[in-house]
Amino acid sequence: MAASGSALKITVREFEEADRPALRHLYVASRNAAFHWNPSNAHQLLDFDRDTVGEIILVALAEGGIVGFASIWAPDSFLHHLFVHPSAFRRGVGTALLAGCAKYCSKTPTLKCVKENVNAMAFYQSRGWAVIGEGHGADGPYCLMHHAIAGRQNV
User: Fold this and answer.
1) b (16+ CB within 10 A) / e for 98-136
2) All domains of the chain, ordered by start, with CATH?
3) Which end of the chain lies in a sparser environment, N or C, as judged by fewer CB atoms within 10 Å?
4) End-to-end distance of the chain based on CA atoms, in angstroms?
5) How far apart are CA 114 and CA 121, in angstroms?
6) How far apart are CA 114 and CA 106, in angstroms?
7) Which of 43, 55, 108 is nearest to 80 (CA)?
8) Helix (H, G, I), strand (E, B), or coil: what is residue 16?
9) Is 71 helix (H, G, I), strand (E, B) or coil?
10) Is the four-CA dihedral 9, 68, 25, 52 of positive or negative sign?
11) Which pLDDT tens digit goes with each residue over 77-123?
12) Region at 123 (left for phi over 0; alpha for psi -120 to 50; beta for the rest)
């Protein structure tokens, strides 16, 4: 990886089965970083398989490796997951994944973001997502958000 904070040249493509082992590890590392209040053993490798069943998965690659992924439940245009490896935070990966998701959304896209994940909340809001509701899930209180910009640019 390049020096922390520098932009990466990112390619986003659809999931291939060979990506699964790396994505399992990325999912655990990213969730441990994002949901720091959970016990370290709360996130397991096979959670990735369970949590993305039936979803379209996009993979972000940079410098020869997988640095993030997004998964979409296409029937509802619901962005279920967007995770970036901690070593690639703030380097354009999330933005690239959001842009890649746009073509899979047939209506206004939505997502749920855990309130305590303040970095993710700020990220989504800075890219045109707006809070439209609230709820409580396994990881705590969350905000239901939708993409507020017409035309789904930068979903």
Assistant:
1) bbbbeebbeeebbbbbbeebeebbebbeebbbebeeeee
2) 11-152 (3.40.630.30)
3) N
4) 26
5) 8
6) 24
7) 55
8) coil
9) strand
10) negative
11) 999 999 999 889 889 999 999 999 999 999 999 999 999 999 999 99
12) alpha
| One-letter amino acid for residue 134 of the chain | E
The Cα 42–Cα 150 span in angstroms is 38
b/e per residue, 61-93, with b = 16+ CB within 10 A?
A: bbeeebbbbbbbbeeebebbbbbbbeebbebbb
| Lookup: tokens for 78 | 């619901």
Joined tokens for residue 107: 């209506």
Amino acid at 19: D
Tokens coding 5: 């904070």
Phi, psi of 9 (to 5 degrees): -85, 110
pLDDT confidence of residue 1: 39
Q: CA torsion 65→10→109→118, rounded to 10°?
A: 80
